[in-house]
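Entry for coenzyme A complex. Fields follow.
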Amino acid sequence: MNILETERLLFRKHSLADKESYCAMEMDSDVRRFVGGYPRTREEAEKRFGATTKPSDSSLGMWATILKNEQKYIGRCGIYPHFDAASNPIEGEASLGLYIAKPYWGNGFATEAGEGFIEMGFNKLGLNRIVTMVQAGNNASVRVLEKLGFQLTSTEERVRTFYNFVLENAR
Ligand SMILES: CC(C)(COP(=O)(O)OP(=O)(O)OC[C@H]1O[C@@H](n2cnc3c(N)ncnc32)[C@H](O)[C@@H]1OP(=O)(O)O)[C@@H](O)C(=O)NCCC(=O)NCCS
């Protein structure tokens, strides 16, 4: 069953057939540059892939992102629970995640996915706000968030510098 469909993309649960494409993305140093910083090994990628196929009855999660006209796995996108400092999910909030495979960058797919999940989060799930955190230097991601209407609310210094972005439900 599809979680969501947009003009060029559909979003569904991961299946075993997605494993190669999923692992290739996790092992790609350019994809991982600002998310984790280092490419995963095949073993690490496979282990993480296992978690994506676990059953779930929620619309919140990171979903296999399929380019409809090629029937191809091109990444994973979605909104997932946003946790507070005590690891409790914050009611009415979710985090946006967008990961597109490198050969497909620059075609507006992340923006299209983001628009779809914002619409779903606000209009179907009734969320109050959607948040996301981006590592400084990830300018493509910052640009996508700007296009989606997110506002920069704070900067956090950890081992690296991160930006917190928020989109409020205007209702
Ligand atoms: C960030 C990411 C999701 C963008 O995906 P995408 O499908 O290429 O995004 P879109 O095509 O919708 O939009 C990209 C925008 O960034 C711009 N852009 C690309 N590289 C850029 C750069 N280095 N600096 C500034 N802008 C850049 C593009 O020109 C485009 O803007 P435009 O439409 O105004 O021309 C993709 O690069 C990715 O998956 N990266 C690895 C994982 C990641 O970092 N995810 C985000 C985690 S917070």
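NOTE: The pocket of coenzyme A is lined by residues 31, 34-35, 98-100, 105-111, 134, 138-141, 143-144 (CB under 6 Å).
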